[in-house]
DNA sequence: CATCTCGATAGCCGATGACTATCAACCGCG
DNA sequence: CGCGGTTGATAGTCATCGGCTATCGAGATG
C-alpha cells in the first residue's frame, strides 16, 4: 500500500471515472488503472465494480475510502507542519539565562524576535550558570546565555562570546558617594562600604566576592539573598551599595547613583552556549543570530 | 513521502539507532539511511540530529512523529478491515423481500446466516416487488427476494429462481370447510367464500385476484388491507378464508384449517434478484448461496 | 453497422530502492 | 597514542517498478 495508490484510489472514488481521475492526478490512465489493480491485489479485494460507465465502490472500497482520505490528509498536514517549522512560522525556543541577563540584554532582543516570528513560542528558564549547563546537556534547553568562565566547562558545550560588560557600583543618591576620588571607585574602596548582595546562584555574587578577596578583604553584606530588582531596591533605599552590570544600572533609572570602577575595573563576559553535538533547531539558530547581532552592536569590540 | 519512508522514520525514532532500525524493518542499513535522507530532502528539514551514538529527533522530526504513527496505524487498520470484510467477519447485507417471504422462507435462513457470520449486519427491507426492484437498481439493496414474474422486468436485473410454492386456502376450524369436496378446493369454489385479503403491494393479492378473475368471478372481500399476521388472525376469527403459501400456513399453527387447492392449483415462483452489472458484495453472495441451498432442500425440484 | 468511449493490456524505458563494499568519524581500550 | 570496533554515510551495481505510448475490446450511440 502506498500513499500514491491511495491518492489514485480516492480520485477514482470521487470522479467515478478512471480517465478523469487520471487527469486529476496528472498521470496517464493506464498507470492509474495499474496502480489501482496493484492495490486491489495487495488488499485481496476489488475496490471498484467496473460496470461500463458506472464505476462504483465495492464494500471494500467503501471501507477503505474514509481511511484513505484521512491518511492523505494526515500526510498533507505533516508536510505543512514541517514546512511551517522551517519557515519559522511555528516552533519553540527554549532559552536559559542567568537572572542578571534576563534583566539586561534579553528583553529587547526577545521583543524583536517575537515581533519578527510571532509563531515561535519563547520559553525562558532563569537559573544559575551551573543549572543552565546541566539543562543544556540534558537537551532541556536549546540555548543558554551564560557568564564566562563556566563553572563546569565541558567539551559537550560550545560557547560563543557575545559581549563584555563593565560592572559598576550603584548606590543611593542620598548617601555619600562611595570611594574617595569622586568620579570612580576602586575595588578596594568597597572595603569601607556595606554591600547589598545577590542570592547564591548569581554569577555577580561570585564575581564580586572573588574581586574583593583578590583585593585582600572579605566583603561586608548589609543584606543578601535578593533577586536583581530587590537588590536595586535595597540600594535605592540606602541599605548599601551593589556591584551590577552597567547595562542594568542604566536601565534602573535616575534614582540611583552610578559610579564606575577605576581601571581595570570589573567585567563579565557573556556568552551563548549550546550543545556541541547537535545543531540547535532553526528557530534557536535564528535567535542566536539576533542575539549575536544585537550584542555586536552593543559592544563586544569595546 | 511514502508509507515505507514513514515506517523507516518511526523505526529510527523508536530505536534511536539506524542500524537497529534497519534490522527491525528488515532492510540493509544503507537503504534505510538513504530513504530517511530522501524523506528529509522532500520535507526540506532534517528529521534527526545524527550525533554519533546519540540519534535524536529534531523539531521537525518531533512534529512528524505523531502524524507518521497515526498514518501507519490507519494504513494497518485499512488493511485489517478490508481483509475482515473478505473473511465475512464484518460487513452488511441489504436484503429486500416481499412481506410474505419474510414470514416464510427467510427466518430460518437468516438465523443460520447470522449464526455463521455474526459480524455481518443484516438489513431487511420489506416491500412490494415493484419497490424492491427500484431499490435494487438504485443500489440501495444488494439482493431481493421477489415473486416472479416481476412487475417491471429489466435487463439490469438478474433473477435466479429459488423455489415454487403451492398456495393453499386457510380457514377457521370452526367454520364449515370451504369447497364442496372436502379434501381440496377449486379456485372457482372461492366464489362462494368471503376472502380476507392482503393490502395492496402483496403479490399474493394480485395473484389471488387474478386467479379468481381467470375463473370467471370477482372475489368478495370480507376485510382487506392487513399484513400477513393480521390476515391470519382475521381468518382464525372466522371473518373469511385466505389464500396463502403452504409454508406460511404450516407455520401458522394448528388453529387454522388448511385446505389444498385442487390441481393444478395455484403457485408462485420465488426468485432472488440482484443487479446484473455489478457483482453483489461477498457477504451478499454468501447469503445468496445459503438461500439457494436452503430452498433447494426445501424444494425447487418438486 | 460504423463510430466513439473508456477501461484493460502490452511493451518499453528511466527512476528508484535495495544490495554489497567501503569510507569516515568517533569511541574505548591497551 | 595508536588500533580495532562501531555506526552512519557514500559509491556503485542491479532488479524492480511505475510511467508512458500504442492498442485492444466491450458497450454505448447514432
What does this structure look like?
Two copies of one chain form a homodimer. The first copy, chain A, has three domains: 3-86, Orthogonal Bundle (Arc Repressor Mutant, subunit A); 91-163 and 270-298, D-Maltodextrin-Binding Protein, domain 2 (3-Layer(aba) Sandwich), CATH 3.40.190.10; 164-268, D-Maltodextrin-Binding Protein, domain 2. In chain A, helix 1 (3-15) packs across helix 2 (18-24) and helix 1 crosses helix 3 (29-43). Chain A has eleven helices and eleven strands. The first copy, chain A, is an alpha/beta fold. Chain A starts with a helix and ends with a helix. In chain A, the strands form three sheets. In chain A, strands 3, 4, 5, 6, 9, 10 and 11 form a seven-stranded mixed sheet that branches. In chain A, strands 1-2 form a two-stranded antiparallel ribbon. The interface between A and B is large, with 40 and 40 residues. Chain A binds a DNA duplex (30 and 30 nucleotides) through helix 3.
What does the secondary structure layout of this molecule look like, with pairings?
The structure is a homodimer of 302-residue chains.
Chain A: H1 3-15, H2 18-24, H3 29-43, E1 48-51, E2 54-57, H4 59-86, E3 91-97, H5 99-103, H6 106-116, E4 120-126, H7 129-138, E5 143-148, E6 157-171, E7 195-198, H8 203-214, E8 221-226, H9 228-236, E9 242-245, H10 246-251, E10 257-260, E11 267-275, H11 282-298
Parallel strand pairs in A: 3-4, 3-5, 7-8
Antiparallel strand pairs in A: 1-2, 5-11, 6-9, 6-10, 6-11
Chain A binds a DNA duplex (30 and 30 nucleotides) through residues 4, 17-19, 27-31, 33-35, 37-38, 50, 52-53, 55.
